[in-house]
Amino acid sequence: DTEVTQTPKHLVMGMTNKKSLKCEQHMGHRAMYWYKQKAKKPPELMFVYSYEKLSINESVPSRFSPECPNSSLLNLHLHALQPEDSALYLCASSQGQTQYFGPGTRLTVL
Amino acid sequence: QQPVQSPQAVILREGEDAVINCSSSKALYSVHWYRQKHGEAPIFLMILLKGGEQKGHDKISASFNEKKQQSSLYLTASQLSYSGTYFCGTERGGNTGFQKLVFGTGTRLLVSP
Asked: What is the pLDDT of residues A15-70, one digit of tens each?
């Protein structure tokens, strides 16, 4: 099973809202990733967790707050987002050389 | 800096061949190729490690020229299912337990009947 699941599939939020994105994998992978993808652009790395510790933060604004409660779960907490943060947010996991992506959460900030 | 892919877009008839190139301005440890259909997750195709190897998977193969910092993806006898956007993901370091991928600009491929 090479499945990474993400919820919700779609999310619409106002600039004052607080929401969370959830990512889950049961492949025993010890590295998990958040990417942001704008329309017709490549995915851009935001965060990497390795063995449940934050290993990379690509200078992401503090209104995005990642959390890795355990080796299977990855959350992305959202607060006071801007309209330009509207995008597809992809989660991925890896063990070894290959990253497996989830289907993404399409986020719209009004 | 983001790797540059060429061409930006290509239209094929079913059964035709295509080559997609990925060029980096920096030395690379590995190149990962993905295909993404509209509204879906990127799907892993293959990885090439430095050493100039070539790999193949069914009618899709790839090469990696470490000295030129380039990789090419070869699609032969294209099928309708090959349609999508192809991204190369490049990695400069290795052996850290995770991959810090920088994705290329993307190539949109459309295969028509």
From this structure: 989 999 999 999 999 999 999 999 999 999 999 999 999 999 999 999 999 999 99
| Beta-carbon count within 10 A of A30 CB | 16
pLDDT at residue B68, as a whole number? 87
Q: A43 vs B98: CB contact, 8 Å cut-off?
A: no
* CA separation, residue A11 to residues A14, A20, A45, A78 (Å): 10, 10, 20, 11
The rounded distance, in Å, linking the Cα atoms of B111 and B60 is 14
Q: Measured between alpha carbons, how far apart are the two ends of chain A, in Å?
A: 36
How many Å apart are CA B99 and CA B101, to the nearest integer?
6
Q: Which of B43, B49, B106 sits opposite A42 (nearest CB)?
A: B106
User: Cα–Cα distance between A105 and B98 in angstroms, integer?
Assistant: 23
Contact at CB, B98 and A104, closer than 8 angstroms: no
> Are residues B41 and A102, on separate chains, in Cβ contact within 8 Å?
yes
Q: Would an 8 Å CB–CB cutoff place B98 in contact with chain A?
A: yes
Residue of B29, B42, B27 whose CA lies nearest to A97: B29
Q: pLDDT digits over B7-58, tens only?
A: 999 999 999 999 999 999 998 889 999 999 998 999 999 999 877 666 667 7
Dihedral angle, C-alpha B85, A104, A28, A93, nearest 10 °: 50
Q: Do residues B34 and B83 touch, judged by C-beta distance below 8 A?
A: no
DSSP A41: S
